[in-house]
Amino acid sequence: MHDRGGWPTDAPIDRSEHELADWEVLTDALVGALSRSGLMNVDQLRRGIESMPPDEYERASYYERWLFSIETRLTEEGVLAPGELDARLAP
Amino acid sequence: MSYRPGQRVRVDAREHEGHHRTPAYLKGKTGTVERTHAAFRNPETRAYGGDGLPEQPLYLVGFAQRDVWPDYRGHADDRLYVDVFEHWLREAQ
Amino acid sequence: MSDHDHDHEHDHAPIADGDEPPAAARVRALEALLVEKGVITHEDVREGIDWLVSRTPADGARVVARAWVDPAYKERLLADGRAAARELGIDPGPAPVLVAVENTERVHHMVVCTLCSCYPRGLLGPPPDWYKSLPYRSRAVSDPRGVLAEFGTTLDDDVELRVLDSTADIRYLVVPRRPEGTHDLTEDDLAALVTRDAMIGVVQPAAPATAGA
User: Fold this and answer.
1) Does A15 sit within 8 Å of C114, measured CB to CB?
2) Which range of residues forms the domain containing residue B13?
3) Which of A27, B62, B86, C89 is the most exposed place for a label (fewest CB within 10 A)?
């Protein structure tokens, strides 16, 4: 799903751009900080992204994929308990 | 086995479960070593918490586009260059 | 700006912004949680944010302009991109190797990362959305001349097109060709001609518009 070279597509290239939102910059910087803490290297980031279910991968935005990968990594490392972040967000 | 610029090499056509950086479209294709990069830790094991050692030599390998895509519509001498790890390459004729 | 940047001891639900996806609140909560757990510090994240937002293609343009005016610098750039960037006071970032590839009258280069989005951010800033998009990642390798056409770029008949797929830790920077009629421009003026897209290789720098009006 991530290995896209040569996939047939008629889709034109959408050249519209957007400035990175604060949360996207934060997500990017979070990976950097986790990398410096020894918790997540770029190969783990990529592997986590590649582990997304295909329909989620296609639907997710770029940094949504990163966030998925960060949560996967931290949960497998035991830094995050399953459901811990959801509980934090619950109203 | 290490390769030199100008040498013909073939990319292994094998499946690999899990993270790897050899694109599917390149597997089984034959090209020419363009340059030798340094050696790098292996992402296939680093992706799962391993240290990625021993480092693997990395090569920039060039391919004729028409050798990669049966329906390639560009020019006959267009080329495609990809960074490939040594353990994915074999000598070719 | 939609985040609130201040120091609190207490935690609270992140302020929701109607335009943001759920991921926005999620990542803010995650950062706060990780800081509380002592896994990371906010200062470390802040440093990362500052580095990211300070990256600009103007830095890559300076490297290209210097290569255009100084042949010895160009040779150093082609031999070791990171060292050449540092010579101009540019921090090339964490990617281990930067390789500059030179467009000539016979060869035109274009860069993609079909597997994800590898990109020389230290010199170009964040990649544009289209570079990370599925259509670009699919077609840049198999139909590069079609992709160039979408960017309004046509190469001369005898030009060989070389596409580089960045699959490993090498980051590629295209040194585009210096446009005709620029021999009396200053280095700064030359840098102004070098766009991010020219350093990815999907367009070629245009000669400056002739002064008029």
Assistant:
1) no
2) 8-91
3) C89
Q: What is the DSSP string of C133-193?
A: SHHHHHHHHH-HHHHHHHTT----TTPEEEEEE--SSEEEEEEPPPPTT-TT--HHHHHHH
Instruction: For C132-174, write each residue's pLDDT tens digit.
Output: 999 999 999 999 999 999 999 999 989 999 999 999 999 999 9
Query: Could you tell me how far CA C166 lies from the centroid of its own chain?
Result: 13
For residue C154, give Cα distances in angstroms to A10, C147, C159, C182: 20, 10, 10, 21
Contact A47/B19, CB-based, under 8 Å? yes
Indicate the number of domains in chain B.
Answer: 1
- In tens, the pLDDT along A44-89 reads 999 999 999 999 998 999 999 999 999 999 999 999 999 999 999 9
Distance, CA of B69 to CA of B84 (rounded, Å): 18
Q: What ipTM was reported for this prediction?
A: 0.96
Any idea which fold C56-200 has? Answer: Nitrile Hydratase; Chain A (3.90.330)
Of residues A33, A34, A70, A32, the one with CA closest to residue A51:
A70
**Does residue B32 lie in a domain region?**
yes
Q: Are B69 and B76 in contact (CB under 8 A)?
A: no
C108 contacts: CB under 8 Å, gap ≥ 6 = C155, C159, C160, C161, C162, C201, C204
Partner residue opposite B23 with nearest CB, options A5, A41, A44: A5
Contact B77, B25 (CB under 8 A): no
The minimal CB distance from C167 to the residues B21, B69, B77 is found for: B21
| Nearest-CA distance B4 → chain A (Å) | 26
Residue B3 lies in a domain: no
Residue of C nearest to A17 (CA): C129
For chain C, helix, strand, coil in percent to 5 are 45, 10, 45
CATH of the domain at B26: 2.30.30.50
Cα C39 to Cα B59, C7, C45, C66: the distances in Å are 37, 18, 11, 42
CA count, 13 A, side-chain hemisphere, C14? 26
Among C5, C10, C19, C34, the strongest candidate for a mutation testing the A interface, having the largest count of A CBs within 10 A, is: C34
The residues of C assigned a catalytic role are 113, 116-118
Question: What is the amino acid identity at position C141?
Answer: V
Any idea where the domains of chain C sit in the sequence?
Answer: 22-53, 56-200
